[in-house]
Every structure is written in C-alpha cells, then in structure tokens.
Amino acid sequence: QVQVVESGGGLVPAGGSLRLSCAASGLSWNMYTTGWFRQTPGKEREFVASMNQIRDEIIYSDSVKGRFTISRDIAKKTVDLQMNSLKPEDTAVYYCAVVFWTATTFENAYWGQGTHVTVSS
After folding, report:
1. Residue 43 backbone dihedrals phi, psi, to 5 degrees
2. Is the separation of the CB atoms in 31 and 54 below 8 Å?
3. pLDDT of residue 10
4. What is the pLDDT of the chain when averaged over all its residues?
5. If we measure between CA atoms, which residue out of 33, 40, 4 comes closest to residue 20?
6. Is the per-residue pLDDT at 29 higher than 90?
7. CA-based angle 62:68:72, to the nearest 5?
8. Are 88 and 81 in contact (CB under 8 A)?
9. DSSP assignment letter at 27
10. Any residues with CB less than 8 A from the CB of 58 and at least 6 apart, and which?
C-alpha cells in the first residue's frame, strides 16, 4: 500500500524559511516523479514544483522560482521543498504527490494529507 506523508509545515514570519519533506512508502521511491502543490480555501490546487529523478528534470511554477528549491535526500528517501523568502501569499496547505516517472500529469498520483504553512506579515 502506497503512503505519502508530508512534514515540516508551520508558522513563519514573512521573509523566513521553511523546509518541507515528502516521504513515500510502498513504492520504488526513485522511480516516481514527486510534485509539490498548494491550496488555499476557495481556490484550486496550484502546482508548485516537481522532480523527476529518472529524467533529472525539475520544474517550478513562476510564483516560486528563485525562492523555492526542490531536492532529494537519498539517505532519508525524501523529496524536500526548501522555501526561502516566504511571503504571506505563500500561506496554504502544501501537498505532496507522487506518480510513476513516465506519467505526464499528476492525474493518477498518490497524494499526502497535506501540511499547513502560514506566513505572517
């Protein structure tokens, strides 16, 4: 059974940093593309960043490019999202999703339960 678990959310002042981690069990961790998404009440889920370990491909949304960095921790088997220069508009529930590396969308991904990130002004 596949399980996806996010960790690392919290409250941080504007300009601060947080590091989120995504751990997926029940699958071959490095054979999957990991994506980070976020959602605020009343809005659709928004793509943040993704990493395809097989293709060595990383993608960022324009809203986080230059501030967020997605990376993998081989020892911990996690895909992390380092978030710097946080803004109040980054406040959201952040979700991790994993999908087999050949997939072109996250339509059939396994999703975590989400972790809250709050950036105070």
Report:
1. -120, 160
2. yes
3. 97
4. 96
5. 4
6. no
7. 120
8. no
9. S
10. 49, 50, 51, 52, 70
User: What are the structure tokens assigned to 17, written together?
Assistant: 């940093």
Interacting residues of 62 by C-beta distance below 8 A, sequence separation 6+: none
Q: How do residues 51-71 score in pLDDT, each as one tens digit?
A: 999 999 999 999 999 999 999
Residue pair 69/82 in contact by the 8 Å Cβ criterion: yes
Instruction: Please tell me the predicted confidence (pLDDT) of residue 12.
Output: 98
What is the DSSP track for 8-31? --EEEETT--EEEEEEEESS-GGG
Q: Indicate if the alpha-carbon torsion angle 82, 55, 65, 118 is positive or negative.
A: negative
- Reported as a single tens digit per residue, the pLDDT across 73-96 is 999 999 999 999 999 999 999 999
What are the φ/ψ torsions at residue 29 (nearest 5 degrees)?
A: -45, -45
- The separation between the first and the last C-alpha atoms of the chain, rounded to the nearest angstrom, is 40
If we measure between CA atoms, which residue out of 76, 66, 4 comes closest to residue 35? 4
Sign of CA dihedral 19, 85, 114, 61: negative
pLDDT-based confidence at residue 28 (cuts at 50, 70, 90): confident
Instruction: Determine the Cα–Cα distance for residues 103 and 25; give it in Å rounded to an integer.
Output: 19
